[in-house]
Amino acid sequence: MVDRLVHSEANHRRIAIVEQCFGSNGQSLTKTGRVLVGEGVLTKMCRKKAKPRQFFLFNDILVYGNIVIDKRKYNKQHIVPLEDVKIQSLENDGPWKNGWQVISPKKSFAVYAASPTEKSEWMAHINKCIADLLANSNKRPATEHAAVWVPDSEAQTCMHCLKVKFTPIQRRHHCRKCGAVVCGGCSNKKFILSYQSDKPVRVCITCYEVLSNSVPDKDKSSMIRPDYESASASVWNSDEQLNDDDTASGGSADGGVSARGGMGTSDPIITPQPRYGSSDEEEDDIELPPGSLPESHPQFYDFGTTEVLIS
């Protein structure tokens, strides 16, 4: 069905409408062979809270953004290439139901659908797109993935030392390797995670020890950065501004993703729980309390429908 939709006028029209809804700040989504497979609203667990996001599933990328005017205008466009993605179902946890994790080398996060049926539909379509991409490109699935960040609200004390309580002065930090919320003293090291970025990023002292022990001595000087206390304050402050704050990150419509956001691996030291989120969202939009997931009514276009949800 996707092959049939590639050259259809309906597919071209849908993609053009999505581009219009993101406006001039969004990247072009038109590409030879690209098909809009489906769209709908999902609840995304962000660093500080759960928020509704409009998602667009293409046959090669997953796009989402903030909802400014429903079905009319979106901003903060994010693009995740599907060839590097794997998804993992989450068990229901109290009010948080029908969720799964979207995991990739650059960015990982949890999302929730409004019903088990919607969850099943989304996961089936995403998995089908991933399988088709890998089969057609002869590429192998990514082996290293970004950690899904623990939301700030899940940690009142440092998850590493279990002693430091977070306050307006004693701020939270996230380890880019495992996603844990840690204090400054327990995350005073930097390390280059090559699959994520060519710049050193903050990691907790446990992950730092594991990472540094895995690197040959001759390469350590290029991978490791000084302790927080001995490093330039301006350098560390700029790193926190880029990586710890809830800022928007874009990506390439051809498959690239910004290096901003959560960082880690597919084998985290601290196992993520269902409510874990990501670091890329701003604080100026809707917060969803537990048990109030939006009715999303997703639309998938690979079953012969010609309906366009956005008009």
From TrEMBL:
Keywords: Metal-binding, Zinc, Zinc-finger. One of its GO terms (cellular component) is early endosome. One of its GO terms (molecular function) is phosphatidylinositol binding. Pfam families: FYVE, SOS1_NGEF_PH. One of its GO terms (biological process) is endosome organization. Residues 35-131 form the PH domain. InterPro entries: PH-like_dom_sf (IPR011993), PH_domain (IPR001849), PH_domain-containing_F (IPR051765), PH_Phafin (IPR037871), SOS1_NGEF_PH (IPR055251), Znf_FYVE (IPR000306), Znf_FYVE-rel (IPR017455), Znf_FYVE_PHD (IPR011011). Residues 152-212 form the FYVE-type domain. SMART domains: FYVE, PH. SUPFAM superfamilies: FYVE/PHD zinc finger, PH domain-like. This is Pleckstrin homology domain-containing family F member 2. It comes from Amphimedon queenslandica.
